[in-house]
Amino acid sequence: MTLERKARTRLTTALVLLLVLGAGGVLGAALDRQLVAKGATGVEFRHPDLEADADRRGREPGDRSRGEGMERRGPLLVEQVGLSELQKTQVDSVVTYYRRQMRTLHDEFNEDYMARSRELVQNTRNDLRSLLTSEQRAAYDSLLVESDTRWSQRRDDSISGPRERRDDH
Questions:
Q1: What is the pTM of this model?
Q2: Most-buried pick from 86, 88, 93, 108 (CB within 10 A)?
């Protein structure tokens, strides 16, 4: 084996190792973000509607068992200090109250965000249309209708699942 070929082999090996290391770093970062997003930090955040549903099913105070298919994110930090049954009931009440407040705030934020977002998109489209000739505007409007239809279909599919396609063969 020539010296040049050995150098090329070493370079190739080094590049492959760097790619593997880089891919591992990217996957590790993605996994870390996913775990943090799922609440692997030990702090539990649950949707208030799930709490209300659990209460309607006759759940005992302090029983944080989840419904079918629901992930358990772990205990609240305050539960780790050795609460009495009365304190557990009181903590549940306080946490449920503030979860509902957060849900309301979240819903208000989403409504404001969506309204402002739609306004910005419409303003952008109007400003772009003003730069176009009448033929270009007609083509642009047609493309927008197609794009909006595809976007709505993707949104609907993500909510209800993809529709079955019918093959007429």
A1: 0.40
A2: 88
